[in-house]
Design goal:
Blueprint lengths: L1 E9 L3 E10 L2 E5 L11 E4 L4 E4 L6 E6 L3 E6 L3 H50 L3
Antiparallel strand pairs: 1-2, 1-7, 2-3, 3-4, 5-6, 6-7
Pfam family, one: PH
Organism: Lygus hesperus
InterPro entries: Boi1/Boi2-like (IPR045188), PH-like_dom_sf (IPR011993), PH_domain (IPR001849)
Length: 130
């Protein structure tokens, strides 16, 4: 997903229009859509963020990496905010599921290797003549 969001920069400059791109579990932002080829101004792994929505402003969402960074964002409309929330939530769930599947596969693989090694060890011990 990609599109325009307002990003809070500071009290001097306030809300600034930025082009955001969500791809492969990474949310990146650029000064504009035309600047995408020049490199992003910042990015964050979706798996690391916590998402909060404003009860007062139906276009606002706050993304935070605990103890590190906060991104205060506004969508052009409540409907677009909802699209971003769904996309971010889906990306976060996908990354979490993929990680869990990899860890599960590694656990199964390690258990299989251990079982094979133990069986070979037992077979070896039976054939050893003392």
């Amino acid at each position: 997903m990609e599109g325009v969001l307002l990003k809070w920069t500071n009290y001097w400059n306030g809300w600034q229009t930025r082009w955001f791109v969500l791809h492969d579990g990474i949310l990146s932002y650029y000064r504009s859509a035309e600047d995408v080829n020049q490199g992003c101004k910042g990015s964050v792994k979706v798996s690391a963020i916590q998402i909060a929505v404003s009860n007062v402003d139906s276009t606002r969402m706050d993304l935070s990496i605990p103890g590190q960074k906060n991104l205060y964002l506004k969508a052009p409309s409540p409907q677009e905010r909802q699209l971003w929330l769904v996309a971010l939530g889906s990306a976060k769930a996908c990354v979490t599921l993929t990680t869990e599947m990899k860890n599960s596969a590694l656990t199964v693989h390690h258990k299989s290797v251990l079982a094979i090694w133990q069986q070979r060890q037992r077979n070896y011990e039976r054939t050893v003549i003392y």
